[in-house]
Each structure stands twice: as structure tokens, then as C-alpha cells.
Amino acid sequence: MNAYDFDKTIYKNDSSTDFLIYCLFKHPKALDRVPSIIAGAVKYFVFKKGRKEDFKEKAFSIVKYCDISKDVEDFWRKNKKKIKKFYLEQKKDDDVIISASPRFLLEPVLSELNIKHLICTEVDKNTGKFLSLNCWGKEKVV
Predict the structure, then answer these.
(1) With contact defined as beta carbons under 8 Å apart, do 56 and 131 qualify?
(2) pLDDT tens-digit readout, 41-78
(3) Which of 49, 76, 97, 123 could bridge 102 with an S-S bond, Cβ 3.0-4.6 Å?
(4) CA angle, 78 as apex, 2 and 28 as ends, to 5°?
(5) In terms of pTM, does the model score above 0.85?
(6) What angle do CA 62, 126, 8 make, to 5 degrees?
(7) Could you please report the per-residue DSSP string of 107-120?
């Protein structure tokens, strides 16, 4: 059994960011959320106020504009190629993937890769609300 981080380790980029950008282009009405997302980013990253989960909830609020199951499926059809070759060549079915990205985003592609063990952030796929702490930094160890 091996443990891997997902984003920027076995997946070329940050899958959450890629997915949110994908959704913004696919659902232009979601652009209504961009000012709130920018305000949340400035508050958290510039002024160091609030929690990372608060900022990310604002970002994931765009899922309200999505057909989430179809959009996740379409996203992975287009982006599965960003899973790095080194991982595909050495992966094992008992690998553990640990990620700050949400379960609803990662489960479909990991299932396709026959990876059964996922530790990640729990996010409501219909609202973008966080149901757990962001599985990042010290929380990833917990």
C-alpha cells in the first residue's frame, strides 16, 4: 500500500481549480459568483482573515449552476490525461489517495482507475458547502 497526494503529485494541476474553471466556461451564469469568489480570496489570501474553507465554499458555490454528475463525468473525460504516467505505471489497487479536493470530484476517476481508498474533503455536491475540514496541510495528517 502506498499513499499519494492527488493534486500536483499524480494529477498535473489542481483538480479543483481545473474543475471550477471548466464549470465557469460551461455554465456562464456561474460567472455571477466570481465577485464573491474574488472577495473571499482577497479576504483569506491577502488579509489573512477567515478560514480556507470559507473561501473554498464560495468557490464551490458555482456547483449550484451545474449538472454535477454530468459535468464531473465530462470533466474527467477531458482531463484524465493529466494523471501522470509515472503513477499509472506503478499504481496498486490498495493505494490510498489523500487530497484537499472534494470526494464528488475525485471518486469517479479513482473508481475508473480501480483505486478504492480515498481520504479527502467532504463537500456537498449540490451546494458547495463543506461538510468536513479542508483536507490540507495539518488536516491531511489527521
Answers:
(1) no
(2) 999 999 999 999 999 999 999 999 999 999 999 999 99
(3) 123
(4) 120
(5) yes
(6) 60
(7) HHHHHHTT--EEEE
